[in-house]
Amino acid sequence: MMQHEFSIGQLAAAPPLQALDAHIVFDGLQKRYEGAQGPVAALSDVSFSIARGEVFGIIGRSGAGKSTLLRSINMLERPSAGRVLVDGMDVGGLDENALVGLRRRIGMIFQHFNLLSAKTVAENVALPLRVAGVKPVAARARVEALLDLVGLRDKAHAYPARLSGGQKQRVGIARALVHEPEILLCDEATSALDPETTHSILTLLRDINRKLGLTVVLITHDMAVIREICHKVLVLDGGRKVEQGEVWRVFGNPQADATRALLRPLQHDLPADLEARLVPDLQGREGIAVLRLRFTGQGRPEGVSLQALAALGPGATLLHGGLDRLRGHAQGSLLVSVPAGALQEEAARAALVADQIKVLGYVAADAR
To answer: 3-class DSSP state for residue 43?
Structure first.
């Protein structure tokens, strides 16, 4: 059995983030299953590439084809047509021995951790090394270095039943890194965790990406996860690619209906109390017009000038909204009311401030 030696110094001296060349390429990928009612298309002609060293998110609703796409990278799912290339190599053409080698270069973490309850933390992390025939001394040093990396050195001799969900996932991450992979696949890695723990795991993954220079590919149904960690995102809907791009661009100006639906929970929607009072027309009465000012991050990446907002006029009132900052681009939306009688003038001023402007409706003076 082949022996593997590891240099623990490589863990501390990892290459910096580089996203200059394609690490993974999907070329016309298709996947069909035989269902009760006939063939089912899980993926339909999906083509895109992932750059070396970037954190790439794949998002979609349940049944969109996310898991099938992710698992095609290490051939846990074989496509019906098309190719997946890793470093220019068509992984679908590899024999079983070559696939074993590929899978050691590709770590994977799972939603439900997949830990062995009868083994300690250290034993769980060391298991792939034992299977590969790594010498015990080298394996022990590697496990200790990885437990340091994920912040669990003091839990080395604990059993999974004594760990929190976040700690279990950290064990899963350490185990996925034992063969010093170039790619890390995350299959809904945070969906079983509470928001605080999710944040800590995403912070760890971001640190690993930066320190080790790994290409990280994650799938999720949660746009908040994409916003927090990813450089780029692909949106799947019904097995088809409907949108792709830098996260700040997709969040700031989504083009596909599926993307807009996924983003809705993160957006500053019209508050219910205000929505209940909105009417499409004042019918000659006095009142206010409610405008939505959208900021995509394109025109004013540094933010919105308070001076410019003040220029909307003394009758303008900020009602609701907010801005987020994604990779150096400020984006979001603000709801503003202006006197309905001066709408044309105020809307013209608003158009100078925002990337997009929309009149949502009116509120009569006697309804306020």
So the answer is: strand
